[in-house]
Amino acid sequence: MMKSRDMADLELALGYRFTGRELLEQALTHRSQARETEALQPLTVTRAGDNEQLEFLGDAVLGLVTTEELFRRFPQFHEGELSKLRAHLVSEKHLIRVAQLLELGHYLRLGRGEEKSGGRTKTALLVDALEAVLGALYMDSGLEEARRVILQHILVPELERLAHSGSSLPLSDYKSALQEKLQAMGRSQPAYVLVKEHGPEHNKTFTVEARLETAGDRQDPGFVGRAEGSTKKDAEQGAARQLLDYLVSLPESVGGRGHGRGRLSSGS
């Protein structure tokens, strides 16, 4: 059976120290523990607090921060594409990994029945507690601090993992989005070049470069996106994303033509 830990360890893992420690305690208290407390104190009028309301708040805060971050990072995405990526980032499948990395199960306050049935490892309890902690953090310090923790622990690591893996989850449309962007800028389309493949036939990894020509020399690639993927298509999408991110970051006065040379890599 897992033993509970001091909440200071969780604060250290989060990179945030609560001003109102009672908020964190409530965020970690499952209703089974709260109902047991009430049963032991039948004359108490005040209802023992659990984490359900904080979970409700934290879910909303997570949704807002995720939506805002995707809107900022991916201006080339359509609404459906943004919705698909957001759905993944706030999904139970993703959030359980974050809760496990934070070892959230060690800090839960559970009733005896829930403890005996393995509540500290139950996906639903861990995800609910994670969202409740975000709600508590928002109540304790406001949106900016909640945003920092969400970006650090939930959004940025997963977005980087998706980019490095060449996953088509956000979309398989990076190449199309890049094509549209280059057409709008009056620039030539990139060349996609397979530069390496390794691994056994049933589990190959492909490395592809997307080479963008400079305005003055068609033989000299001005910018190069480089990515790996389990298929050539996924690797091409990752390389296209590198170029697209670069072009979107350019000032309007620079974006129309290539200036200088650079290499972008999904592994950097």
Provide the fold topology.
Blueprint: H1 7-14, H2 21-27, H3 31-40, H4 52-73, H5 79-89, H6 92-101, H7 112-116, H8 123-141, H9 143-165, H10 174-185, E1 191-198, E2 205-213, E3 221-229, H11 232-249, H12 252-255, E4 262-265
Parallel strand pairs: 3-4
Antiparallel strand pairs: 1-2, 2-3
Helix pairs in contact: 2-8, 4-5, 4-8, 4-9, 6-8, 8-9, 10-11
What does this entry look like structurally?
The protein is α+β, with helices and mostly antiparallel strands. The chain has two domains: 7-165, Ribonuclease iii, N-terminal Endonuclease Domain, Chain A (Orthogonal Bundle); 174-265, Double Stranded RNA Binding Domain (2-Layer Sandwich), CATH 3.30.160.20. The protein is 56% helix and 11% strand. The protein contains twelve helices and four strands. A four-stranded mixed β-sheet has the order 1-2-3-4. Helix 4 crosses helix 5 (79-89), helix 4 (52-73) packs across helix 9 (143-165) and helix 10 packs parallel to helix 11. The relative contact order is 0.12.
